[in-house]
Amino acid sequence: MRFTTWLRATFVACAALGLIALLGATSALAHAEPDITVPPMNGSVDLAPPQLEITFSEEVADGTKIDVVGPDGKSVVAAPSQIDLNDPNRKHVTVELYGNLPAGTYTVNWTSVSAEDGDADSGSYTFMVTTGAATPAATPAASPAASPAATPGGTPVVVTRDQVNAVAEAAQQQATQQAKTEDNFDGRAYLIAVVAGLGAALFIYLFWRIVRPKPGERVY
């Protein structure tokens, strides 16, 4: 009887120790894995969001990062991953994405570092952008040789480069001719002023010769 009781107690103790060891091993093997994702894991959205979010299954530490690869195989991440400091559980991680992303399948590559035991884990998943940013329509470039000008009748008139150059050259010649005319006018006016000045000086000199006292005359 005593042996049976002792055997049962030993079995219970061994079972309890085994259970405790199993739970400890399970806890030691736990890793921080994506629990909630925005956009949804393997889901689809019309337009790519400005940032991608992952809420992990447990608290994460520095070294946790997210990379997003676009349909062309290039990263569309605009800034390093950030652990949300406003999250008291430190499970929420975000990463900013470039704007105006096109439609297609995007691959999210994540690496987590557990804040509990420092174990690292990694993985990937995809999501799809169905609509994407609209591609701007190409606008026709204006021809350097000719540009249409609207007329009152609505019919466009094509003005060639040669015509534009001819008009510009004629305007330049007219401006040069006007400048020459102004220069000639100023020259003639200056010559007239000089001649008038010399004439006035000569008149004053002759008048003085007439009215001045003769030699031997005495002025009282």
Structure description:
- By secondary structure, this protein is α+β, with helices and mostly antiparallel strands.
- The chain is built from two helices and ten strands, in the order H-E-E-E-E-E-E-E-E-E-E-H.
- The protein has helices at 2-28, 161-211; strands spanning 34-38, 44-45, 51-56, 65-69, 82-83, 92-96, 102-113, 120-132, 146-149, 157-160.
- The strands form three sheets. It has a four-stranded antiparallel β-sheet with strand order 1-3-6-5, with no helix packed on it. A four-stranded mixed β-sheet has the order 2-8-7-4, with no helix packed on it.
- A hairpin with a 7-residue loop joins strand 9 (146-149) and strand 10.
- The chain is rod-shaped.
- The model is unreliable at 14-19, 21-28 and 136-147 (pLDDT under 50).
The number of domains is 2
Strand order of the largest sheet: 1-3-6-5
Q: If helices are DSSP runs of H or I spanning 4 or more residues, what is the number of helices?
A: 2
Strand-residue fraction? 25-35%
What's the CATH topology label of the largest domain?
Immunoglobulin-like
Going by CATH, the architecture of the largest domain would be Sandwich
Low-confidence stretches: 14-19, 21-28, 136-147
Task: Count all strands and give the number.
Answer: 10
Average pLDDT figure: 76
CA-based shape: rod-shaped
Short description:
This protein is α+β, with helices and mostly antiparallel strands and 220 residues long. 35% of the residues lie in helices and 26% in strands. It folds into two domains: 30-132, Immunoglobulin-like, CATH 2.60.40.1220; 155-211.
